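[Automated response] Your request has been received and processed.

Submitted sequence:
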Amino acid sequence: MGRAVTVATCALNQWALDFEGNLERIFRSIDIAKSKGARYRLGPELEICGYGCSDHYYESDTLLHSFQVLEKLLESPTTQDIICDVGMPVLHRNVRYNCRVIFLNKKILLIRPKISLANGGNYRELRWFTPWSKARHVEEYFLPRIIQEVTGQETVPFGDAVLATKDTCLGAEICEELWAPNSPHIEMGLDGVEIFTNSSGSHHVLRKAHARVDLVNSATAKNGGIYILANQKGCDGDRLYYDGCAMISMNGETVAQGSQFSLDDVEVLVATLDLEDVRSYRAEISSRNLAASKVNPYPRVKVNFALSCPDDVAVPTCMPIQWRHHSPEEEISLGPACWLWDYLRRSKQAGFLLPLSGGIDSSATACIVYSMCHQVCLAVKNGNADVLADARRIVNDETYIPEDPRELCKRVFTTCYMASENSSQDTCNRAKLLAEQIGSYHINLNIDAAVKAVVGIFSVVTGRTPRFSVYGGSSRESLALQNVQARIRMVLAYLFAQLTLWARGMPGGLLVLGSANVDESLRGYLTKYDCSSADINPIGGISKTDLKNFIQYCIENFQLTALRSIMSAPPTAELEPLVDGQVAQTDEADMGMTYAELSVYGKLRKIAKAGPYSMFCKLISMWKEICTPREVASKVKHFFRMYSVNRHKMTTLTPSYHAENYSPDDNRFDLRPFLYNTSWSWQFRCIDKQVNAL
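Generated structure:
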């Protein structure tokens, strides 16, 4: 009868402009899909060139090389007898579109341009592409000669159409279109489309996965149908980690779930589903059927091919499953770890160096590297040949097999405690014990000689010697002396990253890891060009609150008992002199606000789009049990003064793993001035007026 269709979707770890690697991963996914009986294969958004090409999309080379890859796909025996749906940029009548190219047996069936472009937060698609605005309209696209020679076609359909096979009807969505209020799947479903496909380039944000899953399931809950979602995975060259989660859903329920975090470059999901289940589900939804009778039909591209077999009565079909979501602590353990692995292997470096202070932030960063080593060992144990080859190249040992995370950590991870006369023995001991437990190669050094030398140069030139405030110096002198220590640590971190392996008789260099959290960056509580300045920062998009919970997770899951004392110690920069041998300086006292308050300010500023006055108005209600309006006003003013005074630091912020929607990352996510009128006179006057009225 032809009712059981077998379809495949995938999550691919594509890399921007890595045309050769991208092609190889696409081929592998098609091979796997065919081996499992699939007759249709869906890939991620812009998978041929990689999603994160950014301004390289303007280059004709990107278009040329994408068509060259398409040529290889079309002419290969691998792509025969399966409908292949791939993503690439296409220039149509001198307008650049983000497209799906759908082909079968050396013939292009349809080029479907994206209708709704992602243009918020980290996305800038309108910068490079134009949305297709001609609903249910198809034009002729003249193929490049290299494609004509393979397909024998001069023109192919280009536009908003659906595919009608011998047994069903398929319609495509592209990423953002699922999130749009007028998603194409609504009208397509009413017009009889039974299988919806979505090729995505969707990145990880803490606590976001459920939203994507809910959208996919709800797409077919009201209208019936099969929904197939493919996604990019991994680090394709910037701050984002694309978190896979390929999935297949039918009639509002998940039937196949891909992993959110893994080191597998290619992951393919295959499901066999009964089309009659879709038809019977739709049959009893009278409101849907009434709307369907009035729908404006889509152009249909007829395809002489079936996704099912004629004799499929005994073919087993997939049943609904329960989606398992990771906890935020698991997400922090896995997402940044996978991102670090991609960055390490693709940068062709030999490991990481981390200034380990014995505080929560640097310790959390160390734990993420340790988690990365766990993931590598697990992947090798599960037979991942790609990970094994990468690990052997990184450690420069062709016979090496990573089995113990601590042993791998020793090879690829160097930690360094940089003591000064203002450092306590407690933090030194904490750093040393944590390094022992995770297995890193640990260095202890003292920076006092370098600090004295730098300050000495200033004294020789000016005839003045700055002093800390506890010794009678001004706040300017004290801050300058703190900054000297911090910046010398950055210089030494890069020196040791470049030459530590050389000194140990080993090849290669190390990537320097930063460890400033999202809240400190927002407040600007860091020294410009200190150890927050690094090559990459895996925790730069994570809040202090989430990092504390992650530390607790590591105590319980990795048995890192050294973290207990780190958790209980108050966060401190240790840049001011000790008092009776004990730390007197704490972060929250220095900042004039708590980390919990900072998270609230950050979410209101970015997510709720609140300026000073709006933030004050929201907080007098949120904090009415703990603060008077005058106290709230004082806190809001202090935050905005400190935020605006320090905003210039965001222009040089180390590239960080994007994990939080209130990130102050100045690169492209949080676009603001960096020279403010820090008095906020008009805004603060509005607050004062309201305080007086209250």
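Summary generated for your ticket: DSSP finds 24 helices and 20 strands in the chain. The mean pLDDT is 94.
If you did not submit this request, please reply to this message.
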